[in-house]
Amino acid sequence: MDINNLKKINEDLENLKNSSLKSFQKTGIVKFNPFKSMGGNLSFAVAILNALNEGILISGLHNRESTRTYIKEISSGKDSKVELSSEEKKALEDAIKS
């Protein structure tokens, strides 16, 4: 193998390493019941992160009439714009640990 091939392989590896940091690879899921009058854990919080702990957190709150869905941006392992619920915090912690 000549030096040009080794340089190309090294370059390709570096590109793969950099792109893999940005791909989603960590998840945390919490199912819960926010309303005591209803049975079942039909509400949820899902955190989906990359290697840099950046990504999204999706929450769904289910009641008898509807399900409301929310999405929050995660940067550096936290959401600096909106307070997270305890269930969302747990999903985020689980994703960071995974």
Q: Secondary structure elements and their pairing?
A:
Layout: H1 3-22, E1 26-32, E2 43-49, E3 55-62, E4 67-74, H2 86-97
Antiparallel strand pairs: 1-2, 2-3, 3-4
Instruction: Kindly report the oligomeric state of this protein.
Output: single chain
Q: Structural class of the secondary structure composition?
A: alpha+beta
Note the main sheet: 4 strands, antiparallel
Strand content: 25-35%
* Average pLDDT taken over every residue: 89
Integer count of domains: 1
pLDDT < 50 stretches? none
Spell the H/E element sequence: HEEEEH
Give the radius of gyration. Answer: 19 Å
Task: Write structural notes for this entry.
This protein has helices at 3-22, 86-97; strands at 26-32, 43-49, 55-62, 67-74. The chain has 98 residues and is an alpha+beta fold. It has one domain (24-97). Strands 1-2-3-4 form a four-stranded antiparallel β-sheet, covered by helices on one side. The longest helix is centred in the N-terminal third of the chain and has 20 residues, at 3-22.
What's the quick description here?
The protein is α+β, with helices and mostly antiparallel strands and 98 residues long. It is built from two helices and four strands. The protein has one domain.
